[in-house]
Amino acid sequence: MPLPMARVGGILSGIPDQWRVPLVRLALAWTAIFALTYRDWLAMFDQWWNISTYNHILLVPFIIGWLVYDRRAHLRDMTPEAWWPGFVALGSALFLWLLGSLAGVNTASQLGVVVALQASILTLLGPRVAAANLFPLLYMLFLVPFGDELVPTLQMITADLVIAFTHWSGIPAVIDGVFIDTPAGLFEVAEACSGVKFLIAMLALGTLVAYCCFKSWKRRVLFMAVAIALPIFANGVRAWGTIYIAQSQGIEFAEGFDHIFYGWVFFALVVAGLLAASWRFFDRDPEDMGVDLPNVGKQQWFAHIAALQIGVNKAFAAIAGMLILFAGWHAMASRIEADLPQSIALPQVNGWEQIEYAPTVEWSPKATGADHRLLGRYRNGDGNEVDVFIALYSAQEEGREASAYGEGALTMDTPWRWLAPGDAMENASSEYLLAYGHLKRLAQTSFHTADVTTGSATKLKLANMRDRLLLQARPTMMLILSAEESDTQNPVQSIATFRQSIGDEGEWMDRIAALR
C-alpha cells in the first residue's frame, strides 16, 4: 500500500495551489449532478456496454482525459475563477434534463446531464479554462448515445444503393421498400444492415482526427464530409456483396461470409483506407496541439466577459441550491398520473360492425406499460376491413412511452418486417409492414393527449413535457388504424373511409377513455 499512496501523493503535489480547491469543488459538484441524474448515467452505460452501436463510447472518457492531460503544461499557469453567467448554461442543462426525464425522451435527458457537467466547469473554473479546453468539452457530447432515429432513413438509403449496385452487376432484381427480390432469394435491408453503428462510430472518430491532424478548416470540413459519406456508401457495398455472393454460392454461404468478414472487420478496413488516403494531407502534429483559442484571452471583448466573476463559495452554494430545486421539481412532476376508468371498450361506428379479429398473419402492436389495450376488427358493407388498436396510458415515463423507439405497429420477433414509409398524413404517421415476403399491411399511428392529436412523436413529447412541468395530470392515447392489402382491398382507401366514419379522432379517443 505505501507505493500506491506515494504515487497518489505525488500526483496531488503536482497540482498547482490555485487549482486544488476549485478542482475539489468541481468534483463535489459533479458528484451531486451524478447523484441527481444517476438513472440517466446507468442507462447510458448500459447502452455503451450492451449495444454494439455505442460500444465505441466506452473510449470517449479516456480520449477526453488524454486531451485535457495533453494541455497540462498550459493549464498550470492559469487561475480558475468562478463565473456567474455559467449558471445560465447550468440551469438550461438541468431544465433540459428535467424535460427529457419527465417526457421519457432519453436523448434529451442524457444530453442535459452531459451539458450540466460542461456547464459546471464553465461556472466553477471560468471561461478562460473553458476556452483552453474547448474541444475536449465539446467532445463530451459524444457521451450521449444517439442514432436510432436515423435507422429508417439509412435503411432506405442502403436499399437504394444496393438495388443500384445489383442492377449494375447484371443481377435481375426487384425492390419493394427495404426488400430486394433476386433469383437467389428475397433479401431484407434490416435495421442491423442500416449501417448506423458504422456512421456513428465514424462520426466520433472523424471528429477526433479532423481536430488532431488538421489545421486548415477547409481540410477539416472535407475530411468530415468524406468520413460521413464513406460509411454509408461502404455499407451499401457490403450489403450488395452479400447479395452478389449469394447468387453463386447460396444464401447460407453468403450469410456466413457476412458474419465472419463484415461487421467491425469491414469497418476497420474502411477506416484504415480513409486514414491512408488522408495521411499525406495531415498538417498538424497531434503532439503539438496546445490549448484551444490561445489568443482569445487577449481580446478586449473576452476580457469583459471573463470579468463577470462571482465568489467561489457563492457559486458553489448557488449550484447546490439549483440542484435541490430541480430535484424537488422532478420528484413532484414524476408522481403526476391521470385518473382512468377501470375498463374501456371499442365503440360502435356508423356503417361498420365489429367482427372476429382473425388476421391472415398474427399482428399485435406493442404498447409497453399501457394501462389499457384494445385490439379489434371492423367491417363495412363494402367488405372493407380495418383493424383498430388503442392503448391508454395514465402517464408517460420510462418503461411506458407511447412514442418510444420500438413501440407501436411493428413488433420485433414476429413475422412482420418494416417495409417502407406510407404517404404523409396530417395527424398520423404511416408505414407499410411485410410478412413472409408477400403480405402487406398499412399501419397509421396517431397520438392524443388533451388538445393535441398528432402522428409526430416529437409533438407528443412536447405536450407531455408541458403537462408534467405544469403538474397537470392528463392521459395519453395511441391509436393505430391498420388494414391488410389484398386483391379486393386497398388499405389506404379502407382506412380513409373508417376515419370519415369516426369523425374527429381526438374526440373519438376521448370518448373511449371516458373523458367526454
Overall strand count: 11
* Percent in helix: 40-55%
Shape by Cα distribution: flat
Reading the helices and strands in chain order gives HHHHHHHHHHEEEHHHHHHEEEEEEEHEHH
Note the total helix count. 19
Number of domains: 3
- Average pLDDT figure: 89
Q: Which structural traits does this protein have?
A:
516 residues; alpha+beta; 19 helices; 52% helix; flat
Descriptive overview:
With 516 residues, the protein is an alpha+beta fold. The chain has 3 domains: 2-36 and 71-133 and 294-333, no CATH class; 148-286, no CATH class; 352-512, no CATH class. The protein starts with a helix and ends with a helix. It has helices at 2-13, 17-36, 38-50, 60-69, 72-75, 86-103, 106-125, 127-132, 134-139, 151-168, 196-213, 217-249, 251-261, 264-278, 300-306, 312-333, 457-469, 491-502, 505-512, and strands spanning 174-176, 179-182, 185-188, 352-355, 372-380, 385-393, 416-421, 429-435, 439-449, 452-454, 476-484. α10 packs across α12 (217-249). The mean pLDDT is 89. Helices cover 52% and strands 13% of the residues. The chain is flat, with a radius of gyration of 28 Å. It contains 19 helices and 11 strands. A hairpin with a 3-residue loop joins β8 and β9. Strands 4, 5, 6, 7, 8, 9, 10 and 11 form an 8-stranded antiparallel beta sheet that branches. A 3-stranded antiparallel beta sheet has the order 1-2-3, with no helix packed on it. Residues 318-502 form the Methanolan biosynthesis EpsI domain. The chain crosses the membrane at residues 21-39, 51-69, 81-99, 119-144, 156-175, 195-214, 221-241, 261-282, 302-329. It is found in: Cell membrane.
